[in-house]
Amino acid sequence: MIRPRFVLIENVRGICVEHGKKERSLSGRGRPALSYASRIVDALKGLGYVTQSPELISACEYGVPQRRPRIFFFAYLPDEADARVNLFQTLRDGRNAFLEEKKLPTTRYVSLEEAISDLLSKHGSTACDDPSSPKGFEQGLYGPRHSQYQRILRNGNRNGTPAQSHRFANHRPDTVSRFREIQSRYRKGVQLHKRDREEMAISKHVVVPLEGCQVGHTLTTLPDDYIHYAEPRILTVREYARIQSFPDAFLFDGPFTTGGERRKKSCPRYTQVGNAVPPLLAEALAAALLKISNRYGVSPK
């Protein structure tokens, strides 16, 4: 049996919701259903772990240019630590030092423009040579760096060179026109209301024209949920990855998108990025865990 010293779990905040269904006890009486968060905590306690109360952490607090609130669970073996262990307090205490070390702002959030302005289509493109992409697509080129965030993630890539997974969608002319109309008519950074979607004859439930000067919305695995803040198009996989704080040196493989039966055989790149824990937040959490490990003389594995 594997019994790690520390257990760290991440999930969407909906995991804390009690859905109102009834469980049937052995006595035959109904009782309110527990949230899945409560079940996880109870299961960890049953395995002999000391647990902290789950906490909501927003990725934007740690340099990631999107809100992305997620629930985190932390538990530890009592023989390796004691009741004073508090991962989340250690994380908060080290936030400013973490950001200052990377020369990222501590009093405001990194914006979308700071994250992806060097990946605009106006910086040029070339025929996409990605083996997972059919012919006829264009791949964007790097433009000048405009922020410290870009300097951190660019990994030395030069202006005018192709960015991996930065394939632009081949939108139909009417789609481009619709995107332009949405960008001009509706407030940026705000999800279109149902009446607005009906007015535009849009069947999708989520459509957000992004705002460049703001921190981004939580990315989903559906790229057409969002319209680029400055151009009438959806975001590319590389822009998705930037907003998630993946370094540009991190390469994505497999199909860009899939559907139907193909989803059973391969995980598309947008899904790979959209389902990930942002690396910057993961690094901050790892640093907090390392502090706790060092405090109790536990060598990191």
Reading the helices and strands in chain order gives EEEHEEEHHHEEHEHHEEHHH
SS element count, helices: 10
Tell me, rounded to a whole number, the average pLDDT: 91
Q: Sketch the major β-sheet.
A: 4 strands, antiparallel
Secondary-structure-derived class: alpha+beta
Q: Percent of residues in helical segments?
A: 25-40%
Cα distance spanning the termini: 17 Å
Binned strand content: 5-15%
Backbone CA Rg? 22 Å
Low-confidence stretches: none
Task: Tell how many strands the DSSP assignment holds.
Answer: 11
| Overall body shape | globular
Description:
With 301 residues, this protein is α+β, with helices and mostly antiparallel strands. It has a domain at 6-107 and 280-295. 29% of the residues lie in helices and 14% in strands. It is built from 10 helices and 11 strands. Strands 1, 4, 5 and 6 form a 4-stranded antiparallel beta sheet that branches. Strands 7-8-9 form a 3-stranded antiparallel beta sheet. A hairpin with a 5-residue loop joins strand 2 and strand 3. Helix 2 packs across helix 10. The protein is globular, with a radius of gyration of 22 Å. The relative contact order is 0.14. The model has no long low-confidence stretch (mean pLDDT 91).
What is the fold's blueprint, element by element?
Layout (H helix, E strand, L loop, with lengths): L5 E6 L10 E3 L5 E3 L3 H11 L3 E2 L3 E4 L10 E8 L10 H7 L1 H7 L10 H5 L8 E3 L10 E4 L6 H7 L7 E6 L5 H13 L8 H6 L8 E2 L16 E2 L9 H8 L24 H6 L4 H17 L6
Parallel strand pairs: 10-11
Antiparallel strand pairs: 1-6, 2-3, 4-6, 5-6, 7-8, 8-9
Helix pairs in contact: 2-10
